[in-house]
Specification:
The protein has helices at residues 40-48, 90-95, 105-118, 134-146, 164-181, 192-198, 216-221, 226-231, and strands at residues 2-11, 14-24, 29-33, 55-60, 63-64, 75-78, 152-156, 184-189, 201-206, 209-214, 236-246, 249-253, 259-263, 274-279, 285-286, 296-306, 310-316, 324-329, 342-346, 353-355. By secondary structure, the protein is α+β, with helices and mostly antiparallel strands.
């Protein structure tokens, strides 16, 4: 549906985007994820036609977008601020873009009601814009975009102004809506959990470049490098030394975990014998009482942080430069483990991921 080929956007000597190429499939929920200033919003604006590439090309549904104005592209955008017109009611806000299509009154009303039903606002067409909650304003902005029946819906951090509980509810609703209407959604966000929860695929960006494109599970469990791993949730990093490299796997020696065989990522670039392994906090499990594991490490709890359903334990392990972060659910009693306690941790060897620094 969207083909981005070698796109660069320069502002003087600064490159907001640097030779970026990306294919976004028809009907998928795709997220552009990265920290502030990484170029994700610049890329979204160029897809929309609000900005122009310095070089490279963008095509939508097989049609080159060079020279095509934003209002003539098969896209529509939902902005972070929603941009609801305060002097219009809900139905008038939704119908605003339809005016240029010069539909008859009956067809316009039917399309507005259809769009409001899609976003669960049926019956609220006469309500004033100033009478809406934050979540309702967000739905009106979505309805106003969907009523134009675009091939691509562009979302510029549309949930960032909502509180945590409402944001999580809207994540579910957005995903449901995308699956119901079946069009391509492209979301810009800096919230990794939001991207993981909603997306079919994610592009992680840093410094105007795409670091990795993959499905949420792949990008979380098999990050291509330390930068991606560190940005997506917590990750423990362990220094290692390569003992043997064979095809798609490597054997490394660590001070804390001993000798480990693990898969070699596609982006792995050997730099002498040095390597880095990563393991997520939830892939380390507390061994209780007499339980044993063929793969375990022993350490001491030096700190802990209670988060309701889980506790993060900070565990010092002999041989490791930094303590390990361990996430354990509290129904097993992790919240009762005192600071200073000796602890044993089990892990699966395939949870240790080798990565390029």
């Amino acid at each position: 549906m969207i083909e981005i080929a070698g796109v660069t956007r320069s502002y003087g000597a600064f490159k907001a985007l640097d030779d970026t190429s990306l294919s976004i499939r028809e009907g998928e929920f795709f997220s552009l994820l990265g920290p502030s200033g990484c170029g994700k919003t610049t890329l979204l604006r160029m897809i929309a036609g609000f900005d122009t590439p310095t070089s490279g090309s963008i095509a939508i549904d097989g049609q080159p977008m060079d020279g095509i104005a934003a209002n003539r592209r098969p896209t529509n955008m939902v902005f972070q601020s929603y941009a609801i017109f305060p002097h219009l009611n809900v139905a008038q806000n939704v119908a605003y873009g339809l005016k240029r299509l010069r539909l008859d009154a009956g067809e316009e009303k039917r399309r507005v009601e259809e769009a409001l039903a899609q976003v669960s606002l049926s019956g609220l067409g006469s309500r004033g814009a100033t009478e809406l909650s934050g979540g309702q304003r967000q739905r009106v902005a979505l309805a106003r975009a969907l009523v134009m029946r675009p091939k691509v819906l562009l979302l510029d951090e549309p949930l960032s102004a909502l509180d945590k509980k409402l944001r999580e509810q809207m994540q579910v609703e957005l995903r449901r809506l995308q699956q119901a209407v079946g069009i391509t959604f492209v979301l810009v966000t800096h919230d990794q959990y939001e991207a993981l929860a909603m997306s079919d695929r994610i592009a992680v960006m840093f410094g105007g470049r795409i670091a990795q494109v993959a499905a949420p599970k792949e990008i979380y469990q098999r990050p291509v490098n330390r930068q991606v791993a560190d940005f997506l949730g917590g990750m423990n990093f362990v220094k290692a030394e390569i003992v043997e490299e064979s095809g798609a796997s490597i054997i490394v020696e660590t001070h804390g975990f001993g000798r480990v065989k693990t898969d070699k990522p596609q982006a792995f670039v050997r730099n002498g014998k040095a390597a880095t392994l990563g393991i997520r906090p939830e892939r380390l499990r507390v061994l209780w009482d007499d339980a044993t594991s063929s793969h375990q490490v022993t350490g001491k709890v030096v700190d802990r942080h209670y988060f309701g359903e889980i506790t993060h334990l900070i565990v010092e392990v002999p041989g490791l430069e930094k303590p390990l972060s361990v996430s354990e659910t509290n129904n097993f009693g992790a919240d009762d483990i005192p600071v200073g306690a000796a602890i044993r941790l089990a892990y699966d060897p395939d949870a240790l991921v080798a990565m390029a620094d």
